[in-house]
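TA notes, week 10

Several of you asked for a full example with nothing omitted. So below is the full record: structure tokens for the whole chain, then the designed sequence directly under it. When grading your own attempts, check the secondary structure regions first.
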């Protein structure tokens, strides 16, 4: 099974409601889809979102990296030479992690097809079902409350609340949402780098004093402020999840060894795909640091690749893989089933998705 061609195209899917964070607002998934073709007729699928405010990648840079650098580097390689392909993929161009991730997941899709197994079983087979949260975008308090109540009515028991724009107002948001959904719903807070270190401690401490019972706070401080993140982690009781601060294995080493966060959010678009994500999983296992599998604003292809990783590895104990639930429709066939908060892994080989 040798690689004979790689093709890219754009896909645009409207969202149920606009997606709003401290960094951006959008009403569509507007991504690059990748197909990797082989001489046996098998096709692997990948996807990359142009999340410029986080990864620096745009649609033009993603397609350019794939067409001009990645494709010429791996054409002709046998899928069984996974290590050789990944070496070329990660050394043919610097950065461009979203482009690398899209091709990486297509290669893993093909590798699992070659093994005639679902990808999650190839990656370790830890579990066949995972539970995801649902994101509540940052909005006026009444809108967020209504969105949270709607999510609970649909069966979601864990909500990730976007904050980070309004300091003390974020505490009021969380108080209103906790009151509306009750004590049995898990609440996660994602500040998307929106607070400073001292401000983070003040806000999180206030949430603790109010008895809001927040499960974790994700990336409260700017991505490059490791000392600030460590300061927050050391001065609050609530678990701190590092997200944008961890792109690479080296970042993960620093976070873990300096105890700058309690948990790590692994996203394929940051790591450059499954190959590097597995290295972070191995490191986290060594130190006993639990991980979350997360996603950018992605559709079912990329989210399913991350779901297979989460289902494969026991060190990934939490999932923020709600991309398909945010989309108005699903343009794909096959793959994992997304049943509100439950993601049931496919029994077909590979990632299981076709267009």
């Amino acid at each position: 099974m040798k690689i004979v061609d790689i093709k890219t195209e754009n896909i645009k899917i409207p969202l149920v409601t606009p997606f709003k964070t401290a960094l951006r607002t959008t009403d569509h998934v507007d991504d690059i889809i990748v197909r990797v073709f082989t001489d046996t007729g098998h096709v692997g699928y990948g996807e990359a979102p142009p999340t410029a405010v986080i990864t620096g990648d745009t649609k033009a840079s993603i397609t350019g990296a794939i067409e001009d650098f990645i494709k010429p580097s791996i054409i002709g390689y046998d899928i069984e030479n996974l290590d050789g392909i990944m070496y070329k993929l990660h050394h043919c161009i610097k950065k461009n992690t979203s482009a690398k991730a899209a091709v990486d997941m297509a290669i893993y899709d093909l590798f699992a097809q070659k093994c005639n197994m679902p990808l999650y079983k190839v990656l370790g087979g830890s579990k066949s079902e995972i539970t995801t949260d649902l994101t509540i975008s940052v909005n006026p308090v009444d809108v967020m409350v209504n969105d949270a109540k709607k999510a609970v009515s649909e069966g979601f028991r864990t909500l990730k609340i976007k904050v980070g724009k309004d300091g003390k107002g974020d505490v009021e948001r969380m108080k209103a949402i906790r009151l509306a959904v009750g004590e049995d719903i898990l609440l996660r807070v994602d500040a998307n780098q929106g607070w400073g270190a001292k401000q983070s401690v003040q806000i999180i401490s206030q949430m603790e004093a109010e008895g809001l019972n927040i499960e974790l706070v994700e990336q409260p401080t700017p991505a490059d402020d490791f000392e600030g993140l460590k300061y927050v982690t050391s001065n609050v009781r609530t678990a701190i999840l590092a997200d944008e601060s961890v792109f690479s294995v080296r970042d993960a080493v620093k976070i873990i060894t300096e105890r700058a966060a309690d948990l790590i959010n692994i996203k394929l678009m940051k790591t450059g795909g499954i190959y590097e994500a597995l290295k972070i999983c191995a490191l986290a296992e060594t130190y006993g640091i639990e991980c979350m599998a997360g996603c950018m604003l992605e559709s079912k292809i990329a989210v399913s690749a991350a779901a297979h990783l989460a289902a494969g590895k026991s060190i990934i104990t939490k999932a923020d893989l709600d991309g398909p639930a945010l989309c108005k429709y699903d343009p794909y066939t096959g793959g994992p089933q997304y049943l509100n908060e439950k993601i049931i892994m496919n029994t077909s080989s590979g990632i299981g998705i076709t267009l």
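The chain has a mean pLDDT of 97. Use that as a sanity check on your answer.
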